Amino acid sequence: MKVKFIIVVAVLLTMACAGYSVHGTETENFMRSGVMALAEPERNNSGIIIRVDLKKIHKIDLHGEYMKQICLTDNGSPVWVDEVKKVVSAKDQYVVQCKNKVLLFDARNGVLKTSFSGQWGPDAQFVGLLDTWVEDDTVCMYDMSRKLIFRNDLNGNAVDVKFVACDNSFQYLAKVGEGHYVGKRVYGGMEDSELNLYDENFQFVKEIGDLKIKSGIYICCPFFVCSPNEILYYRYFSNDIYVIDDKQNVAVKYYVDFGEDNMPVNPNWQDEYDCIDFINSSKENYATLVSNIYESDKYFCFRFAFDGKKCLGVYDKSSGEAASFVFTPSSSASLVDVYVFDDKALLVTQEMGKTCLTTISVDDLLP
């Protein structure tokens, strides 16, 4: 292995999420366990099973070999990004969604290039910025409170603003196929369809799939666009990863199996809040919050929470094996989040008034 690591023999979990301490994850079948996946993908009715043995998690030093770090600056001064919500890679830039603002940094040197804060918000801020994504060299920003989608080019110039109808409104959106979007629906107080189809003007077309939304819990950014005709989708406290195609078919593509660290499921639970209550009252430790999903021809990657830390899981499609990693920043720094872009892991850290981005190739992480 190119990066030095140690094997963590025993791990625990405490993870803050939406004001709760969270260290578990929902699965449809907590009895599924066993050895690592074989070179020929192991499948069942729930798609390809990705087996992750957390007794073999690799500990990675963020200042180790093969790591490249840049710290974000503005006019030569360090930048502290307030509440990093999401990071998106766009050509030679990083688009960072934070607390009611969107910042664009040069990916080569970390210099701030421009920022977006909404045209009509108080104090030049968005009122309720919920999601940000890049589409056709434009940055799209969804202000849910005002039902507006702002579009700016990568140089900071305004392109247009579109109004989103209030009926069947969404939390998050991803483009799939020509002129269509899939959105995760806003919870309306009762069980309803979780996924909707919207047209090119972000207007409701129809419900798709049979998944049901049961609560208004908010975490972040459940979609990943694999290709123009296919997107991936994850659900909170579930280890199932869904694929949605341009014909609006919804199916499980991957199941992330943490073995004995999966959280059991009680059929009497009504929604995610029951799941959170169970986690907070349990004396056991579970892996949870599979998120920040990414897929390429070589890898499927995901962030998850374990032992009070944000970790990275990597499934190598060629070998059929999975590996997991936990990252160690300096003693004074905190790891904010973990992403993967272009087969490179991106780690966001903060310390002493500055925000830094560290990258390492997934190839260099794996044995």
Which quaternary structure do these chains form?
single chain
Quantity of strands, as a count: 32
User: What spatial form do the alpha-carbon principal axes imply?
Assistant: globular
Number of discrete helical segments: 2
Spatial strand sequence of the major β-sheet: 1-6-29-28-27-26
Strand content: over 45%
- Which regions contain 5 or more consecutive residues with pLDDT less than 50? 1-38
Radius of gyration computed on alpha carbons? 20 Å
Please estimate the helix content. Answer: under 10%
Mean pLDDT level: 85
Q: Major beta sheet, specifics?
A: 6 strands, mixed
Termini separation (Å)?
4 Å
* Overall number of structural domains: 1
Structural class: mainly beta
Summarize the structure.
The chain has 2 helices and 32 strands. It is mainly β. It has one domain.
Can you give a write-up of this model?
The N and C termini lie close together (4 Å). The radius of gyration is 20 Å and the shape is globular. The protein is 4% helix and 50% strand. With 367 residues, the protein is mostly beta strands.
